[in-house]
């Protein structure tokens, strides 16, 4: 398959709850990927000649043998956390079945990448470096962790509630963003009125958001991630 070198990755979040996923590999790398799959609700089958005890548990099936192409049957997603030769065999067999494979730290054999992930309740932020610099993705995630508000899950709950109301009332899409900013600002009204300049959510969501919300645009402040 020939693919242009200037195409970009397509970011997507998968619903794996109750769906069978294959994890090829039984070492520490495979073990590090298992928890995320289980948190997503996946039914995981682990295939490897030797499997660490830490990979055993609920919703996990262990098969102690070498990978075989038929292991892909019925699977929705594959994670290859084995030596490159095994990852290549997995990738080739998956390609023939139109299945995506995340080959851990092995970009040539990967059709999908798992980025650095930051979660706040229902809010998930994922960072990718196209598989070339996973350590950098981790550093960016740590930087964002210090910048994003701890109460972001509260914001998400409010946004979900008002979205349902807007859908019922058929509120036009272009008007929703300023309405959401106003709703979020009301969460912080007791604090905002006591701060210099009355800063609220709109002040932290960017100059464009402030313009759309009809608020005065404050000077931009540089942020440094250390």
Kindly describe this structure.
The protein is 37% helix and 14% strand. With 226 residues, the chain is an alpha/beta fold. The chain has three domains: 95 residues, NAD(P)-binding Rossmann-like Domain (Rossmann fold, 3-Layer(aba) Sandwich); 34 residues, Double Stranded RNA Binding Domain (2-Layer Sandwich); 61 residues, no CATH class. The protein has a five-stranded parallel sheet with strand order 3-2-1-4-5, with helices on both faces. Strand 4, helix 2 and strand 5 form a beta-alpha-beta unit. The C terminus is likely disordered.
Q: What's a quick, concise take on this entry?
A:
The protein is an alpha/beta fold and 226 residues long. The chain folds into three domains: 20-114, Rossmann fold; 115-148, Double Stranded RNA Binding Domain (2-Layer Sandwich); 152-212, no CATH class. It is 37% helix and 14% strand.
Describe the secondary-structure layout:
Elements: E1 20-24, H1 28-39, E2 43-47, E3 60-63, E4 77-80, H2 84-96, E5 101-103, E6 116-120, E7 123-127, H3 134-147, H4 152-169, H5 176-187, H6 189-192, H7 201-204, H8 207-212
Parallel strand pairs: 1-2, 1-4, 2-3, 4-5
Antiparallel strand pairs: 6-7
